[in-house]
Amino acid sequence: MATSDDLDLDFGTLDLRSVEPGEFARIVRNTPARRTAEVMAGPHRRRVLDELFRRMETLFKPAEAGDRTALVRWRITGAGNTLDTYETYIADGRCVVTPHGTDRPARLTLTMAAPELLRLASGNASGPALFLTRKLRMQGDLRLAGGLLSYFDIPRV
């Protein structure tokens, strides 16, 4: 398997499903912000986002969420008014991802640019830091937002 020194955010050739979460976190950490922004504005954006949200289902930690029920809407912005919406529904010890927005009421809506989402989901940025620098906008249950990342097995790099 390739190491993070051998990999770049070249999603034209990188099989995202074969990259372990810790390795992906190292790739994101070692890739300059400008390059991450370029990749997330390019043709592989949706494939990267789809894989990131697919992993949320598998990295979900039911014990951390307890008996909580919540619909979280993720609004991922990009260049040229690009907007991708995903929803994560947490209930009954599971996290189910919908790869588009619905008309269901969200308990929490998070809005951020794609590079910030990559950093957040890979453990390379903190939600409070992104919020304080206005790179993350939240609407709804802020208590849920404060504990949301603990519901997932996010790598520590």
From TrEMBL:
It comes from the Bacteria. Residues 71-145 form the SCP2 domain. This is SCP2 sterol-binding domain-containing protein. It comes from Streptantibioticus ferralitis. The lineage of its organism: Bacteria, Bacillati, Actinomycetota, Actinomycetes, Kitasatosporales.
